[in-house]
Amino acid sequence: MEIEHIAKEISRLSDAVGNALFDEAKEGTENLHEQVVNRLDRDATFFRIISNVASIFIDVGHMQPCFSSTQKGLSILKDYKDQIVEQIGEDAYFYNLSNAKSNLIAEKNPFNHTFSTIEQLIEIKSDLWKAIKSCPGQINPTYIVNLGNSLKQQFRIAEAIECYDKVNSLGLDIPQAWENRSETLMMLNQVSNTFSIQMLEQIKGGYENVLKSREIPLIWVEHYERQAAFHQRNIDEACKEADIERDIHDSEETKDEYDALSGYRQFCLDNHLSLSEHGLYCACAGSARDNLTIPTSEGVVGDFVIPMEMVLNRLKSEFSFARHLYFEYVTKDEDFDLLHDSCFSELFNDELLGIDVEKLRTAFRACFGILDKIGIAICELFDLYPPNGNVYFQSFWQLDRDDRREKFNEHKSPGLLALYSIATDLNDRKGGEWSFLKQLRNDLEHEFVVVHNTYGPSKIYNSYDFMGNIVFVEEGLFINHLERLLQLTRSAIFSFVFAVRDKALNEKDDSYVYLPNSIHRKNYK
After folding, report:
1. Is residue 390 part of a domain?
2. pLDDT at position 518
3. DSSP assigned state of 510
4. Dist CA 175 CA 158 (whole Å)
5. Residue 212 CA: distances (Å) to CA of 155, 163, 172, 186, 215
6. pLDDT by residue (tens digit) across 45-64?
7. Which among 104, 139, 166 is the end of a domain?
8. Residue 48 belongs to a domain
9. Half-sphere exposure at residue 26, Cβ-oriented, CA atoms within 13 angstroms
């Protein structure tokens, strides 16, 4: 069987999937798979081809959808894992693996997930983190979109929007980023119990951007046209209810309002570090402050609301401090006068010392303090303290002990599920891809952590040789770790607010009714 013929057949089958000819693609891939397995030697060429075959099976399984097609692709990936990784790279392997597992999720509605079914989503999320972290160069934008999709399913809305905005800013023709951003904003409407005209505009605009794409099958165009029209009607109705005249120049006004913000606030919005619900999706004057609160404009009830708002004040205070330390480090010139005043001995070992680098170290430690406080507040609010009474955000859940999974399911809400998902990223026992950040925090507290400014720190005077417990971190890598930790912490703060608000709204006398297609117009914000 000629390799050139196989390559053409793979290309033909991929095109068939893109043109929604799923039965043809599935049948053709099954025939190709049989021929490849029976005729080719198990060499590098075979494993590259079999990887492509698995990808087509998985694509058919997603688009049609078809459970058996996905299973065939997943079996190939598992059977030849080491060989496929060697040929296509670890990043591509885990990306394909996450796609296959995503197809097999039985419960498609995230609002129906529990603390049991979410474990499947957590496994997929971990595979996508592996794919992104193992990229040898620039990260494939498709990986980021799929990560956003996974985070969206786990109600990590702030992080999902960050993913889509990052991809959309590249100006590429990736309609999935626009579509899923719109879906995430609709989810935000439900989870937060608030909305704005601008939110509706951006939902509609997302579908309009999808319609501009050359990558969507023609048979789906009508669906996206209906979505855009539906949300246009929502905008018209909302404007009428609020007695607002719709402004066709709103985007220009938003830019003017953004330009009028301080450099620090622009930095917060540009880097997805604001604590404003409106700021999750819009950089206008409405995002000029960290105005996140537990009560909505219509109010909430519960004797726990004020104590939890006190907790939120503490979280916002500490987060804004950590965020500002990070801002100062990356935007302001080093203060050489203060560095000179400190009078450090010159050991020529590349260690960064002084007030500036201490800003990074302090910001990093502060984030874990915030997360642990969220854990304590959740335990207080729902009476969910672990048996030993020790609360560390990443590990207090202990769902497999003492019927705790059932206890958490009694209080299940999008915000609480999101907090658990974030915690698993930081828990080494759950295979968390960011669990080393917790270890680094412990090292900062209890060990000698050297942040250095070269790839390998110099040891001219052997200043590091006396102690064996020194941890070395390159400056750029430490900044990257802090940036990720700030995003996780910000997401946890939003999720905490949504969890408390959900409990309060459930206890309110008058019920909140969600309108069809996930848009409900109870609160303006």
Report:
1. yes
2. 40
3. S
4. 20
5. 28, 20, 12, 21, 9
6. 999 999 999 999 999 999 88
7. 104
8. yes
9. 19
Query: Which stretches of the chain score pLDDT less than 50?
Result: 509-525
pTM: 0.92
Q: Are residues 148 and 106 in contact, defined by beta-carbon separation less than 8 angstroms?
A: no
C-alpha dihedral sign at 513, 515, 516, 519? negative
Q: Which two tokens stand for residue 494?
A: 């939003």
In-domain check, residue 141:
no
- What's the number of domains the chain is made of? 2
Beta strands in 9-135 (DSSP E): none
pLDDT of residue 506: 86
- What is the 3 state secondary structure string of 173-207? CCHHHHHHHHHHHHHHHHHHCCECHHHHHHHHHHH
Averaged confidence pLDDT in the chain:
92
Residue at token pair 């008058």 = 510
Residue with tokens 């207090």: 396
Sign of CA dihedral 308, 312, 317, 319: positive
Read off the amino acid at residue 258. Answer: Y
| Predicted pLDDT of residue 1 | 56
pLDDT of residue 415: 98
Whose tokens are 């996508």? That residue is 128
Rounded CA separation 230/204 (Å)? 8
Domain end residue (candidates: 87, 104, 121): 104
Residue 390, CA atoms < 13 Å, CB-side half-sphere? 5
Please enumerate in sequence order all residues whose Cβ is within 8 A of that of 255, keeping only pairs 6 or more positions apart, or say none.
none
- Per-residue pLDDT tens over the stretch 86-137: 999 999 999 999 999 999 998 889 999 999 999 999 999 999 999 999 999 8
User: Which residue, chain included where needed, has tokens 């260690």?
Assistant: 351
Instruction: State the Cα–Cα distance between residues 296 and 234, nearest whole angstrom.
Output: 21
Range of the domain at 381: 305-507
Say what the pLDDT of residue 247 is: 67
DSSP state of 433: T
Please list the alpha-helical segments (H only) found in 19-43: 22-39
Q: Is residue 74 part of a domain?
A: yes
- At residue 353, the 3 state secondary structure works out as coil
Report the CATH number that the domain containing residue 46 is assigned in CATH: 1.20.58
